[in-house]
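REVIEWER CHECKLIST
Item 1: Sequence provided? yes
Item 2: Single chain? yes
Item 3: Sequence as submitted:
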Amino acid sequence: MPDARRALRSNSGDQHDVRGQSHSGAARRGSDPLVHLGSAAEYGVQPEGVPITESAKPEPVSNYGRSKLAATRKIIAATNDGDIAATVLRVFNPIGLRAPADSSLGAPLIS
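Item 4: Structure as written out by the authors:
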């Protein structure tokens, strides 16, 4: 279980307090908004070829996905409470096996 604790600490815990105590101070209300990069892993396994919407139920299956979801939830709660200005972007595999071959990210996979 040490990997689970390390993932949780890295992605949602000891690194910063999202209510304005980040190392850079960038999340404080009234300053530039924080952009948090979430992950597709927050949703867990989903049917292939079916778009995932924001209303999809997050069901992460990995320590990484669970820790990213915990961080996302902290950011959303702090934003809803008015403590910070933030946006969460959930990144969905910008580079990988299914990247379109004609895209700038998929072309290097083919060559």
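Item 5: Key structural point noted by reviewer: The first strand starts at residue 34 and ends at 39.
Item 6: Recommendation: ____
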